[in-house]
Each structure stands twice: as C-alpha cells, then as structure tokens.
C-alpha cells in the first residue's frame, strides 16, 4: 500500500522550499517558522525515541500503561463474550508490539474465539516483527498487518475487510490530538465503520493534578530525554545544530482543560541552523517550542465527544483507581 501526497510549496522569508506535507522536514519547517514555535510529537518515535518511550512506560510515575493493562486483564472475559456474538476483525490502531492487546489476543485464542487480528502501525518493521511473534505464539490466528498511517489503513480496511469490526485505539494516544484533530479522527472512524461496529478507546482521566504532573516530570528525567531526542533527531536527519544543553524541558498541567503541554525552552538567545532548509532559526532567551499535548478527560467530556461524533456509549471500563478508562462505543445512526 502506498501513500501519495501532493507536493506543496511553503514560502518562508528567504526561500521557497518544496517538501511533502506530513514529512519530518515539512512539519519541522512549518513548526519552526511559526510563533510560538511547535514541533509534532508524532516525530518522537524514531528508533531511539521508541526505546525511551518503553522506559517511560516502566516509570513508577507513569501510571497509564499499567492502568490500561489492568483494565484489559480485569475485563477480558466480558470482551470475549462481546466478541462471541459475531466474527470480529480486531483492528489495533498503533499496535506497536501489542503488549497490552496481547492480553486480549491470548485470552480470546485460548478460549477458541474465532477472530482476525489486524495490527496497524506506521512502522513496517514493528508490524512485521509483531506478525512473526504472533504466528509463533498463536499459529491458528489469522493476522493481516497493515503498515501505514491510521487513515490510509482504515480506508483500506473499509474497502477490503467486510464484516464486524472492533477498533482498538489504546494507550491514551487520543490525548495527543488537539480538540479539533480528536473530533476529526473519531468522525472519520465513524464514517469508515458500519452500524453496530465498535470502537474501544483508551482515555486517561482527570485526577489528582499532582499525580498527572509527576507522570510528565519524572524524577529520573526520562520524559525530558524523550522530548530532547526530537531535537537530536532533527540534528541527525535534517542536519541541524541544536545545542541540546541549551534547551530545557518543561511540562505543565491545566486541570480545567485537562491538557498537559510539554515544551523545550531555549535557555538563552541563540540561532539554530538546519542544513535541510539552508537557514537559521532565531530563539530569544526563554522562547518555547511546544512539543506535545497529553490531554486528560472527564467522563462527561468523553460522552459529549461520543455524541458529537455520532457514537452510542456502551460502557466505560475502569482500573481499580479510576485513573483510566477504556471506553466502548457503538457506531450508531448510519441507517437514519
Ligand atoms: C503516547 N502518548 C499517549 C504518551 C502520553 O502520555 O502522552 C506519550 C508520552 N509523553 C510523555 N510521556 C509519555
């Protein structure tokens, strides 16, 4: 499967540059010519960034992964019973190594559920490795892996995979979207599913603000390293000269909006040259680069979102601290 983009031109002060939208180069340039400057957290996950994220998931302060694993462990039998009602295609958006999804796969397989697993991940090596591991562990499980972005994958699944679907979007990845992107994403999934198909989304919930703040300001500085690695990636892949010691990490949590916002902040006035663009970017002292949103939700906000995107909320599954929910929605209103 291939993704095609039209070439667009961006005019900045001195140069006309042509890059493909949705590529690292295009998005970095677009983000650094803006004020305030931004970079996209979707570029955190190069090989080193993915390793650092694995370390984050083990941190004592970073609770979401453990909470969601507990939810799936606790509710795997209920999910099995739901999936017994039909032949389900289990679509796993952003599958990675499927560490959490394997809780379900293992339980479903051992209980002789007939289903197909469709992992979707932007990284071809990740889906290939996952598929091989699953074939070894579950030789009779049908697996069709898709290595592309979510939307291309969903369009392909819509046209090529008839039948009942349960789409998983785990890990509170939804929290990394802006409010607008979030609605657009959920509405697109609605359009590409059929009446009565299900979407299970992991939402990190609003809770004690200090617990949230500590999850993004871990005492060992791994989250700071995760953010700093994107500056390093720009140095390596785009020929940048970010001085990694002249930027510090800062994350804030606003308990009203529920947004954790992460920044790299320039500790002095400086110029950063990036060879790919043949230009420098000026930073004032204490100027910010917005790196990531990690939104936390209230149950009411989740239900409003479901309604706005034309889903019916079936149930919210919780961990025992009620820190996190896997919320199951049914696609509704297609036949109206
Ligand atoms: C992948 N994503 C849901 C994580 C989050 O919590 O926003 C990424 C992360 N950023 C810092 N720590 C973890």
Automatic annotation (TrEMBL):
Q: Where is the Histidine-specific methyltransferase SAM-dependent domain?
A: 26-330
- EC no. given is 2.1.1.44
**Broad class of enzyme this protein falls into:** transferase
UniProt keyword terms in alphabetical order: Methyltransferase, Transferase
Q: Which NCBIfam families match?
A: egtD_ergothio (TIGR03438)
PANTHER family given in the database record: ERGOTHIONEINE BIOSYNTHESIS PROTEIN 1 (PTHR43397:SF1)
What is the official name of this protein in its record?
Answer: L-histidine N(Alpha)-methyltransferase
- Native organism is Rhodocytophaga rosea
Its taxonomic placement starts with: Bacteria, Pseudomonadati, Bacteroidota, Cytophagia, Cytophagales
């Amino acid at each position: 499967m291939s993704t095609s983009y039209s070439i667009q031109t961006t005019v900045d002060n001195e140069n006309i540059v042509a890059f493909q939208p949705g590529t690292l180069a295009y998005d970095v340039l677009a983000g650094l010519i803006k004020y305030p400057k931004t970079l996209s957290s979707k570029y955190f996950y190069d090989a080193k960034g993915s390793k650092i994220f694995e370390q984050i998931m083990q941190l004592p302060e970073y609770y979401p992964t453990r909470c969601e694993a507990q939810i799936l462990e606790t509710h795997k039998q209920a999910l099995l019973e739901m999936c017994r009602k039909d032949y389900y295609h289990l679509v796993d958006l952003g599958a990675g190594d499927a560490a959490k999804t394997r809780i379900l796969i293992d339980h479903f397989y051992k209980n002789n559920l007939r289903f197909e697993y469709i992992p979707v991940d932007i990284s071809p090596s990740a889906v290939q490795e996952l598929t091989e591991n699953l074939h070894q562990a579950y030789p009779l499980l049908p697996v069709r892996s898709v290595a592309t972005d979510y939307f291309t994958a969903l369009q392909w699944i819509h046209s090529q995979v008839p039948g009942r679907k349960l789409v998983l979007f785990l890990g509170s990845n939804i929290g990394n979207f802006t409010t607008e992107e979030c609605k657009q994403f959920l509405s697109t999934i609605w359009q590409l599913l059929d009446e009565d198909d299900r979407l299970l989304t992991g939402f990190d919930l609003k809770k004690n603000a200090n617990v949230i703040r500590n999850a993004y300001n871990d005492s060992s500085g791994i989250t700071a390293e995760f953010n700093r690695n994107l500056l390093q990636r720009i140095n390596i892949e785009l020929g940048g000269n970010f001085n990694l010691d002249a930027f510090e990490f800062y994350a804030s949590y606003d308990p009203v909006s529920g947004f954790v916002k992460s920044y790299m902040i320039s500790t002095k006035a400086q110029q950063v040259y990036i060879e790919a663009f043949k230009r420098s970017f000026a930073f004032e002292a204490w100027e910010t680069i917005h790196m990531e949103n990690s939104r936390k939700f209230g149950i009411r906000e989740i239900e409003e979102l479901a309604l706005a995107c034309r889903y019916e909320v079936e149930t919210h599954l919780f961990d025992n601290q009620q820190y996190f929910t896997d919320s199951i929605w049914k696609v509704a209103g297609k036949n109206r």
